[in-house]
Amino acid sequence: xxxxxxxxxxxxxxxxxxxxxxxxxxxxxxxxxxxxxxxxxxxxxxxxxxxxxxxxxxxxxxxxxxxxxxxxxxxxxxxxxxxxxxxxxxxxxxxxxxxxxxxxxxxxxxxxxxxxxxxxxxxxxxxxxxxxxxxxxxxxxxxxxxxxxxxxxxxxxxxxxxxxxxxxxxxxxxxxxxxxxxxxxxxxxxxxxxxxx
Length: 197
What we know:
InterPro entries: AlkX_C (IPR040611), Homeodomain-like_sf (IPR009057), HTH-type_TetR-like_transc_reg (IPR050109), HTH_TetR (IPR001647). The chain is mainly α.
């Protein structure tokens, strides 16, 4: 993808994200996005196919920015339990305050974007699970790749479930998911050096 094409795509995604937050999915037309991005409507269709493809691209890009934050959070912790707890907490706190996530989670009409985080969430789930697992393996290379991949997918799905339907205090949910991950991997919840202190 050329720099000019990437810049044009980003402009369309910026416009679409702003409009989705302001108007919701049903209130946005491809022509509105084209006008805001100063391109033709056909250019938007050529790039994204249809409105659903555009909405999906907005959410996937938004997810990439969120994963940058997760990378930072994971780097701030030496032990897996603390890292997972902090990552889940970051996810739930960020999603609660994020305007685009609120639009996805609270769409009131039948054409809302909730499936992008539920029944049609594979692009987001796959990207999140794969990137988090790779980061964890780089930071903790002694972990079993297959087991980590499995439990990361489960942890991401569980965290997304709590985004959609919160079931308790964030700290409690984060601790539960961290215990699930560390127990599955056979890693102590409290690092040995802390346990011996």
